[in-house]
Amino acid sequence: MEYESIISTINESDCSLLTTINFDGPTGYDFFWAMYTDKWTWIPFMLVVIYCLLRPGNWRHRLLMICSVALLFLLSDFVVSSFIKNVVCRPRPSHDPAVMNLLSYVNDYRGGAYGFPSNHASNGFAAATFLAFLLRNRWVTLSAFLWAIGSCYSRMYMGVHYPTDILCGALLGTLFAFLIFYLYRKAAKRLALPLYLEIYRSKEVLAIPVIFLLTVVTLLLLSL
After folding, report:
1. How does pLDDT run across 77-101, given as a tens digit for each residue?
2. N or C: which end of the chain has fewer CB within 10 A?
3. What does R_g of the chain's alpha carbons equal in angstroms?
């Protein structure tokens, strides 16, 4: 009985917080977050990140990096979407009769049936944490986490995730990044590869925060 009471309290808090974050905003605000949450918007950002990760080192280092990133994506995206969501089967708020009619939707977008945990949160925090560990640049770290946090907010504003979907997704993504970076470090040591190559401390990696800032500014201008 106590367990059910705790779950009920969490659900009530979830709904209350979500209905505060989700509101019928102006057209420009809707446009900004609809574009922000779209994965295609961030292709230039992702290409720059991939370039910075694969640019240095020899073929063995590049192969190790490709395997690390692929495994990180497999855990943070595929495992979350194809396994955890289908085991938990928690409806998205946009599909939950208890709250769906209290929410506002942008372009009537409602997402798939299940939302726990959030793929956007898992992917965003996995990538941001991995970049923070590997590149060790404050501006890269700041931009990566701002990108991830913005992505998380957009999912709640769009009405397709509860706050706990986001929180658990972010925690999972961070945990996956810890695991993959640990394995990457062990493999690099075993292969006698330098863990932090020179480019990771160079100004070249500042292309990551620059393209992030340019993308956000472009979205802001388009939403005016």
Report:
1. 999 888 899 999 999 999 999 899 9
2. N
3. 19
